[in-house]
Amino acid sequence: MTHKFTFLLLAFFIILAVSNNQILTGAGANNLEGITAYDQARQININFKDTVKIHEIETKKVHVGDIDIAYKMFGIGSPVLLINGLSAPLDFWDPVFLERVSSNHTVVVFDNRGIGNTTSGEKMFTVKQFADDTAGLLDALKIKKAEVIGWSMGGMIAQELALEYPDKIRKIVIYASTCGGKESILPSMQVMKAFTDQFGTQSERLQKFLPLLFPEKWRTQNPDYLENIPTSMEKISDLTISQQRDAIINWPGTCNYLDKISQETLVIVGTDDILTVPANSLLISNKIPGAALVEIQGGGHALMMQYPEHFSNLVLAFLEN
Is 26 helix (H, G, I), strand (E, B) or coil? Predict the structure, then answer.
C-alpha cells in the first residue's frame, strides 16, 4: 500500500469522525463536501479565547546572514516550521491550528525578511533568498530536520527550500500556493489588481485583502467571521510589501524541478480560492512524486481560518502518519 493511498484513507476516516455529514469525492483529489456554514470547532468544541495566545509568547531574534530574524517557538515534540505568505507576520496563523499542532510538536513561526521584527538587510528580495533565510534560521536554531508548512508565498518558499536544502526537511505541506513560471495559472485581472494594491495602513490592507482570502458566499453566511481572524501586532511598510510582491511576480518558479522533491508532500487548496486557483495545486501534486492533494469544498485562500479543525486534522494526519 503506497504512502499516498494510506494517507488519503486515513484522512477519509478522520473527516468522517469529525462530522457525519461530510463525504469525499472527486477523481485524483479529495473534496470535503457538506462542511457546515461555520466550522463546528468554532461553535462547539473550541473556545477561541482558550487557544494559543501567540501575542503572549516571547519574540526572540537570531542573526542569519545579513538580517536578524524574529521568531517564536512553542509546544513540545518534533519541530514544525510554519512559513507565511505575502505581508503576513508570524502571528497571522489561526490559533486553533496553532493549538492543535503545538500539542504534539514544537512549532516555529517567524517573520520573513523585512516583515515585522525581522530586518530587511541588503540583499535583494527573491523567493530563493527567502528560502536561504529560512534554511539559515533552521541552522541557527540547531534544527537538523523539520516538517515544513508553507502558506501561499510560504508554499513557494517551501518548494525552493526542498529543492535547495532537501536534508533539512522531513515532510512538506504546500497550502494554497503555486509553482510559478509559465506553467502556473494566473488569477483573474480583477484579483491581480487587488493583489498588487496592498498599500496603506494595516487595517486598510486587510480590508482590501479580505475578499481575496474568504469566498463571498462564506462571508455572507458568517457575518461575524472577523471576530475569529487573528489580528497582528506587527507593522509592515509599503516598501516591504512592494519588495515581496515583486519577488513573487519575478519568481521563475519550480514547476520544471518538482520531480526532484523526494519528501512526502501534502498539497491543500480550497475549491473557491481565487488568488492561487486550485489548478495550480493539481499541477504541483502531479509533478511531485507521490504527493497527495486535498481540495476543501468552499474553502478560500485562508481556508485554514474558515475550517481550522478540519484543516488541522488533515495536516496532523499527514504529519503523524
Answer: coil
